[in-house]
Amino acid sequence: MIDETLILIFIVAALGLYAYYSYSLQRIANRTNTENAWMAWIPILNVVLMCRTARKSLWYFLGMLIPYVNILVLMYIWGEIAGVLGRSKWFGVLTIVPVANLILPGYLAFSE
Predict the structure, then answer these.
(1) Which of 19, 43, 99, 112 is packed most tightly, with the most Cβ within 10 A?
(2) 83-96 mean pLDDT
(3) Per-domain residue ranges of the chain
(4) Whole-angstrom Cα distance, residue 99 to residue 80?
(5) CA distance 25 to 49
(6) Percent of the chain beyond pLDDT 90?
(7) Contact at 8 Å (CB) between 40 and 25?
(8) What whole-number distance in Å separates Cα of residue 49 and Cα of residue 62?
(9) What is the mean pLDDT of residues 66-84?
């Protein structure tokens, strides 16, 4: 049987990561003057907010629903978000690198 403490640690870590990503996306949306930055906290709407922040149509949202294609679309969207913030669009490639994908939203949100 799985220990209750392990389950609690997992839940706290998952909520912490969700809060980190949501807050980072909200700051990115605020920095790019994207309307409705609060959408970063709602699960499906945060993907819509990512498309708006990247200045791309909502058709990319449909691409995120297709397995394996969603990886390419997320790389492209994060690259476009980096481009809007004045960074290299190649930052989108970091979304497939295991530790870098955790750091990327915070870097884009909190760096000058």
Answers:
(1) 19
(2) 93
(3) 4-110
(4) 20
(5) 8
(6) 93
(7) yes
(8) 14
(9) 95
